[in-house]
């Protein structure tokens, strides 16, 4: 009986000593959390879109405390940047302006021939299914996965079954680009001009073969590249690519394009 009592006493003593050690360690090793963290998180829109380059709004908030600029929240725009800068006691720099663009000018005839598909209307599902089609396999599928993920109602599917971005509503968060299985949607940062030219096609096939899949296709003729005064157009893989950050907005390429696949893309005032 005495041995049991001693054992119990020993266990209790060890427990008390362990508790004291843990209490002391928790205080000695505790990492103080900056009280501004919660305030920064409250200012951010809470979309966790990742357009800032960090894992969610809390990740960006922590990065701001460590010195990241207050202007990287694209959906938040100048309002959020201003509030963050005021809280952190810094000067606001230039706010990044980004817009999503859809590299497809698809005509109705791009969905042609023996297209056999009777599954869910999902671009991601469609892209993983085996089906027979003579339609363009590089253009917009048009089932609207991008529409579903857009928090700002900035995307719609037009009458030709192609995603169209409203630049007045787009914040450039990139959610639509991330969900597009064919990578038709990309996000571009505003350069010096309020408008940039953009090629609404990325079909790498040669002109004749590409034309067989869709009548609204870049044929890679290179007229736009020759006419561009800024030298920001390159024809690669049989279609033109424009560096929108260097585009001056002269839109000479739009006039020179014989097939009408280059369009002006406005970087309108950011949405507050």
Automatic annotation (TrEMBL):
<dbReference type="InterPro" id="IPR010207">
    <property type="entry name" value="Elect_transpt_cplx_RnfB/RsxB"/>
</dbReference>
<feature type="binding site">
    <location>
        <position position="73"/>
    </location>
    <ligand>
        <name>[4Fe-4S] cluster 1</name>
    </ligand>
</feature>
<feature type="domain" description="4Fe-4S">
    <location>
        <begin position="32"/>
        <end position="90"/>
    </location>
</feature>
<comment type="similarity">
    <text>Belongs to the 4Fe4S bacterial-type ferredoxin family. RnfB subfamily.</text>
</comment>
<keyword id="KW-1278">Translocase</keyword>
<feature type="domain" description="4Fe-4S ferredoxin-type">
    <location>
        <begin position="161"/>
        <end position="190"/>
    </location>
</feature>
<protein>
    <recommendedName>
        <fullName>Ion-translocating oxidoreductase complex subunit B</fullName>
        <ecNumber>7.-.-.-</ecNumber>
    </recommendedName>
</protein>
<dbReference type="InterPro" id="IPR017900">
    <property type="entry name" value="4Fe4S_Fe_S_CS"/>
</dbReference>
<feature type="domain" description="4Fe-4S ferredoxin-type">
    <location>
        <begin position="208"/>
        <end position="238"/>
    </location>
</feature>
<keyword id="KW-0411">Iron-sulfur</keyword>
<feature type="region of interest" description="Hydrophobic">
    <location>
        <begin position="1"/>
        <end position="26"/>
    </location>
</feature>
<dbReference type="Pfam" id="PF12838">
    <property type="entry name" value="Fer4_7"/>
</dbReference>
<keyword id="KW-0408">Iron</keyword>
<feature type="binding site">
    <location>
        <position position="52"/>
    </location>
    <ligand>
        <name>[4Fe-4S] cluster 1</name>
    </ligand>
</feature>
<dbReference type="InterPro" id="IPR017896">
    <property type="entry name" value="4Fe4S_Fe-S-bd"/>
</dbReference>
<keyword id="KW-0004">4Fe-4S</keyword>
<dbReference type="InterPro" id="IPR007202">
    <property type="entry name" value="4Fe-4S_dom"/>
</dbReference>
<feature type="domain" description="4Fe-4S ferredoxin-type">
    <location>
        <begin position="127"/>
        <end position="160"/>
    </location>
</feature>
<feature type="binding site">
    <location>
        <position position="57"/>
    </location>
    <ligand>
        <name>[4Fe-4S] cluster 1</name>
    </ligand>
</feature>
<feature type="binding site">
    <location>
        <position position="176"/>
    </location>
    <ligand>
        <name>[4Fe-4S] cluster 3</name>
    </ligand>
</feature>
<feature type="binding site">
    <location>
        <position position="170"/>
    </location>
    <ligand>
        <name>[4Fe-4S] cluster 3</name>
    </ligand>
</feature>
<feature type="binding site">
    <location>
        <position position="136"/>
    </location>
    <ligand>
        <name>[4Fe-4S] cluster 2</name>
    </ligand>
</feature>
<feature type="binding site">
    <location>
        <position position="146"/>
    </location>
    <ligand>
        <name>[4Fe-4S] cluster 2</name>
    </ligand>
</feature>
<keyword id="KW-0479">Metal-binding</keyword>
<comment type="function">
    <text>Part of a membrane-bound complex that couples electron transfer with translocation of ions across the membrane.</text>
</comment>
<dbReference type="InterPro" id="IPR050395">
    <property type="entry name" value="4Fe4S_Ferredoxin_RnfB"/>
</dbReference>
<keyword id="KW-0677">Repeat</keyword>
<feature type="binding site">
    <location>
        <position position="140"/>
    </location>
    <ligand>
        <name>[4Fe-4S] cluster 2</name>
    </ligand>
</feature>
<comment type="subunit">
    <text>The complex is composed of six subunits: RnfA, RnfB, RnfC, RnfD, RnfE and RnfG.</text>
</comment>
<feature type="binding site">
    <location>
        <position position="180"/>
    </location>
    <ligand>
        <name>[4Fe-4S] cluster 2</name>
    </ligand>
</feature>
<keyword id="KW-0249">Electron transport</keyword>
<feature type="domain" description="4Fe-4S ferredoxin-type">
    <location>
        <begin position="239"/>
        <end position="267"/>
    </location>
</feature>
<dbReference type="Pfam" id="PF04060">
    <property type="entry name" value="FeS"/>
</dbReference>
<feature type="binding site">
    <location>
        <position position="150"/>
    </location>
    <ligand>
        <name>[4Fe-4S] cluster 3</name>
    </ligand>
</feature>
<keyword id="KW-1003">Cell membrane</keyword>
<keyword id="KW-0813">Transport</keyword>
<feature type="binding site">
    <location>
        <position position="49"/>
    </location>
    <ligand>
        <name>[4Fe-4S] cluster 1</name>
    </ligand>
</feature>
<keyword id="KW-0472">Membrane</keyword>
<feature type="binding site">
    <location>
        <position position="173"/>
    </location>
    <ligand>
        <name>[4Fe-4S] cluster 3</name>
    </ligand>
</feature>
């Amino acid at each position: 009986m005495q041995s049991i009592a001693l054992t119990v006493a020993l266990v209790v003593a060890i427990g008390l000593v362990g508790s004291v050690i843990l209490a002391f360690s928790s205080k000695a090793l505790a990492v103080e959390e900056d009280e501004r963290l919660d305030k920064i998180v409250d200012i951010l829109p809470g979309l966790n879109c990742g357009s800032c380059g960090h894992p969610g709004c809390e990740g960006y908030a922590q990065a701001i405390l460590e010195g990241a600029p207050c202007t990287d929240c694209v959906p938040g725009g100048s309002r959020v940047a201003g509030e963050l800068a005021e809280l952190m006691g810094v000067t606001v720099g230039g706010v990044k302006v980004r817009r999503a663009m859809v590299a497809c000018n698809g005509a109705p005839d791009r969905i042609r021939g023996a297209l056999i598909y009777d599954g869910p209307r999902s671009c991601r599902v469609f892209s993983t299914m085996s089906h027979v089609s003579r339609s363009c396999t590089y253009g917009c599928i048009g089932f609207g996965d991008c529409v579903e993920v857009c928090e700002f109602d900035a995307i719609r599917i037009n009458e030709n079954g192609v995603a169209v971005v409203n630049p007045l509503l787009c914040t450039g968060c990139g959610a639509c680009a991330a969900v597009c299985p064919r990578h038709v949607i990309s996000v571009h940062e505003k350069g010096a001009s309020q408008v940039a030219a953009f090629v609404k096609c990325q079909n790498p096939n040669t002109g004749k073969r590409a034309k067989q899949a869709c009548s609204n296709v870049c044929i890679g003729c290179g007229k736009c590249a020759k006419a561009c005064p800024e030298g920001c157009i390159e024809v690669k893989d049989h279609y033109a690519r424009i560096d929108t950050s260097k585009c001056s907005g002269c839109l000479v390429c739009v006039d020179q394009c014989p097939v009408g696949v280059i369009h002006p893309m406005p970087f309108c005032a950011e949405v507050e």
